[in-house]
């Protein structure tokens, strides 16, 4: 059974949702037969490359709220992250993530997508490392087990894996996904948002049972 997850590195609920999904997957009896595929989704695709802004400034502008309200929003997310055992900081940057997704597709091709995704999330949300700094991004790629020269070549070539990112985003639109995280289980069930772990376990069981019925009907 395949689970596809559309997400963005700068999305806090994607960060939290991934942890909750993994907890739900751990409670699923057939977890060893589940393939997890991470797909690209950009929250801010129109922001120019290299144009970064503090996340609190982004929130005040996007939602047209006072800074104090933006801080309260972040505090609620930080609490949810802590409940999931995750680090979280509000003094991070927000920016265009197209290069990050292109690098994740390289990592997928090299069998290191999960490792790079975890490192990117940790750097962005829990550590004082900006994923929008090219040197940091190359360092994270190397930590994930990618060849530094190959990773640098991808970042230097704006066309590298661009089609793969766009294909993921088109598919998300075709499936009706307008926000992330968005989980698609065996192309049978969809789950939106960073749901509690037990919801993911239940959805996995439903998708598994449906697949077994389908297999039995053949």
Automatic annotation (TrEMBL):
It comes from Streptomyces cuspidosporus. Pfam families: DSBA. PANTHER family: GLUTATHIONE S-TRANSFERASE KAPPA, THIOREDOXIN SUPERFAMILY PROTEIN. InterPro entries: DSBA-like_thioredoxin_dom, Thioredoxin-like_sf. It comes from the Bacteria. Gene3D superfamilies: Glutaredoxin (3.40.30.10). Residues 3-204 form the DSBA-like thioredoxin domain. This is DsbA family oxidoreductase.
């Amino acid at each position: 059974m395949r689970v596809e997850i559309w997400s963005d590195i700068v999305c806090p609920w994607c960060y939290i949702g991934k942890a909750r999904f993994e907890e739900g997957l751990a409670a699923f009896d057939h977890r060893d037969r589940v393939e997890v595929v991470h797909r690209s989704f950009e929250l801010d695709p129109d922001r120019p490359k290299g144009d970064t802004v503090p996340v609190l400034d982004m929130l005040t502008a996007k939602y047209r709220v006072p800074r104090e309200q933006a801080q309260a929003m972040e505090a609620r997310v930080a609490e949810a992250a802590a409940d999931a055992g995750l680090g979280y900081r509000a003094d991070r940057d927000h920016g265009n993530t197209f290069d990050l997704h292109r690098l994740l597709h390289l990592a997928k091709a090299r069998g290191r997508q999960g490792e790079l995704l975890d490192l990117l999330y940790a750097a962005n949300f829990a550590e004082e490392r900006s994923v929008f700094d090219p040197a940091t991004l190359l360092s994270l790629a190397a930590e994930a087990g990618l060849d530094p020269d190959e990773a640098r070549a991808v970042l230097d070539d704006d066309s590298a894996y661009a089609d793969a990112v766009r294909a993921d985003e088109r598919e998300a639109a075709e499936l009706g996904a307008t926000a992330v995280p968005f989980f698609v289980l065996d192309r049978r069930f969809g789950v939106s948002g960073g749901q509690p772990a037990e919801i993911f376990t239940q959805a996995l069981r439903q998708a598994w049972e449906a697949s077994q019925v389908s297999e039995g009907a053949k």
